[in-house]
Design a protein that fits this description.
The protein is an alpha+beta fold. The protein is built from twelve helices and 15 strands. It has a five-stranded antiparallel beta sheet with strand order 2-1-14-13-12, with helices on both faces.
Length: 453
C-alpha cells in the first residue's frame, strides 16, 4: 500500500507535529485505499481552513469566524487536482458544515431550477421547443401572474434562455418564478431526490403565495420565434406530493408580518425552501465537471446547454446587451461575493462561475473560481447569517458591514493560498475560457436600474 505524494503532502500540512509523523504515516498506510475525505473528522477537515485564515488581521472576519454558532457560519472548500490526463480529483475541507445546519437558501435555489429547466426542455424537442422559444405564462389559479412580454430581451418576448440569463446575471426573482411554474413543484423535487440531492426541497415561488397556491402552477404556451405559432401548450398543474418538514425552524427574537407589523417572537422558516451547502456544491460540480461525478447526480444537459450556463454564470452585467443593466448598481462583482472589493472589478484573467443568495439576513455563495493566468482553480461555498438586531423581515441586515466583507476576505485568503499551493500537474482550463459579449455603447436604450431581487 502506498500513500500518494499528494496525500503525503496534504497530511503533513494539516497533521501532527514532526515527532508523531511515524504514527501518522502508519494511519495513512492503513487507510490508503479509502477516499481521502473519510480520513478526516469534522475537526481535522477544518484545520486547513484554520491554517489559511489564521493570519487574517481583519477584526470583522475574526469575529464571525470564531463565533460560527452565532453567525450560522458554514464553509466548504474544495481543492481540485488534475492528473496527467487533466481529469479533476476533488478534496473537500469544511468548517462547521452540516447538511442539517439550517440556512435560508434564498436565491441559491435558482441554480438547480435553471439546470432543471434546460433538462426538461429535452422532453419538448419533438414539439420544436427550445430555450429561445417564446414562453407565454397564463393565469390558471388565484394569485397567479400573466406574463406575455419581456421588455429586457432582444425579441421583447419571454423565453427560458432570457430567464436564465437574468437569474445568473443579477439573481432576478421574477425569472425564477417563471421557471418554477414551467417545471412544477412535483417535477422539481422528484428530480432532485432521484439525483441524490436529498437535503434540498424547493416548494415555493418568491412571491406572496400560500402553500396551496405554490402547489398550483400556470398554463404555459410556447411559440415558434419565427412565426409565433403555438409549438406546445403545457397545462396547469397541481402537485399532490407530501413533504416531511422535520423539526420546526424558528429564528430571531421578532419579525415583521405581511402588514409590516412587528410581532414579538421568532420567524418560522420550517416550510420554506431548503437546501444544504453540500447539495449546492455538488449540483454546481455536476454541471462544471459532469464526467467526474456519479452519473446519477448529473443533469441531462447537452454540450450547448452547458456552454450557455457557463457563460451566464460567469458573465458580468456590464458585458451584456440584453438585458442592459446599469453598471453603477449591477457592477462586475455584484454577484461575485468572494471578489467584491471596493473597486467592484475582478482581474480580467479570473472568472467566477457561481450562484449567490441573500435574504432575511442569510448570505450564501456557491462558486468555482478559475484563474487562467496562474492556472489556478478551486471551489468555495459559504453561508452565514448577519442580523445583529434579531428582527426578521425588517430589511435591516448587516450585509454591507459584516456579510460582504467576510465573504471577500475569505475568498481572497483561499485564493492567495491556492496561488502558492503546489500542484503535480498544471490544470488545462481551456474548457472554461469562454467568449463573452461586449456592451454596445452606441445603443441608447434605457438602463435597467431595478430588478425583482
Amino acid at each position: 500500500m502506498i500513500v500518494s505524494r499528494y496525500q503525503q503532502t496534504l497530511l503533513k500540512g494539516i497533521g501532527p507535529k514532526k515527532h508523531a509523523s511515524g504514527l501518522w504515516l502508519l494511519i495513512g498506510l492503513t487507510f490508503a485505499f479509502m477516499p481521502l475525505n473519510s480520513l478526516f473528522s469534522q475537526e481535522n477537515r477544518a484545520q486547513l481552513l484554520n491554517q489559511i485564515t489564521r493570519g487574517i488581521q481583519d477584526s470583522i472576519f475574526q469575529k464571525v469566524y470564531h463565533h460560527p454558532q452565532k453567525y450560522r457560519l458554514q464553509i466548504l472548500y474544495t481543492q481540485i487536482n488534475r492528473d496527467k490526463n487533466n481529469q479533476p480529483h476533488f478534496t473537500t475541507f469544511t468548517y462547521h458544515c452540516s447538511p442539517d445546519g439550517y440556512f435560508n437558501p434564498a436565491s441559491t435555489v435558482k441554480m438547480p431550477i435553471s439546470f432543471l429547466s434546460l433538462q426538461k426542455l429535452h422532453q419538448l424537442k419533438p414539439y420544436g421547443v427550445s430555450k429561445d422559444s417564446y414562453m407565454l405564462t397564463d393565469s390558471s389559479y388565484k394569485s397567479q401572474q400573466i406574463i406575455h412580454r419581456d421588455t429586457t430581451s432582444m425579441s421583447g418576448q419571454p423565453s427560458i434562455a432570457a430567464y436564465i440569463k437574468r437569474i445568473f446575471l443579477v439573481s432576478d426573482n421574477d425569472a425564477y418564478n417563471r421557471l418554477y411554474e414551467f417545471l412544477g413543484q412535483g417535477y422539481i423535487n422528484t428530480q432532485l431526490q432521484k439525483k441524490g440531492y436529498t437535503h434540498t426541497r424547493i416548494d415555493r415561488r418568491f412571491y406572496p403565495m400560500n402553500e396551496d397556491q405554490n402547489r398550483h402552477t400556470n398554463q404555459i404556451r410556447f411559440l415558434d420565434p419565427q412565426n409565433e405559432a403555438i409549438q406546445y401548450k403545457q397545462p396547469a398543474a397541481y402537485s399532490t406530493d407530501s413533504f416531511h418538514y422535520g423539526k420546526q425552524i424558528l429564528i430571531g427574537k421578532a419579525h415583521m408580518d405581511s402588514k409590516d407589523s412587528l410581532i414579538t417572537g421568532p420567524y418560522d422558516f420550517t416550510k420554506g425552501n431548503r437546501t444544504s451547502l453540500e447539495d449546492l456544491t455538488n449540483m454546481l460540480k455536476a454541471v462544471l465537471f459532469p464526467q467526474a461525478v456519479n452519473p446519477k447526480k448529473r443533469f441531462n444537459l447537452s454540450a450547448a446547454d452547458r456552454k450557455f450556463l457557463l457563460q451566464y454564470m460567469s458573465q458580468y452585467p456590464g458585458e451584456t446587451n440584453y438585458p442592459k443593466y446599469d453598471t453603477s448598481k449591477f457592477f462586475d462583482s455584484f454577484t461575485k461575493f468572494f471578489f467584491r472589493n471596493a473597486g467592484h472589478k475582478l482581474p480580467r484573467y479570473i472568472r467566477a462561475f457561481n450562484k449567490p443568495g441573500w435574504s432575511y439576513g442569510f448570505l450564501t455563495n456557491v462558486s468555482y473560481i478559475a484563474d487562467f493566468k496562474h492556472h489556478v482553480e478551486f471551489m468555495l461555498s459559504c453561508t452565514l447569517y448577519v442580523n445583529e438586531d434579531g428582527v426578521i423581515n425588517d430589511n435591516k441586515y448587516d450585509y454591507e458591514t459584516v456579510g460582504f466583507p467576510f465573504m471577500t476576505t475569505l475568498g481572497q485568503a483561499v485564493y492567495q493560498y491556492e496561488l502558492k499551493r503546489k500542484r503535480t500537474y498544471k490544470p488545462d482550463l481551456l474548457a472554461f475560457k469562454l467568449t463573452y459579449e461586449h456592451r454596445d455603447t452606441t445603443n441608447n436604450r434605457p438602463l435597467i436600474r431595478d430588478i425583482a431581487d
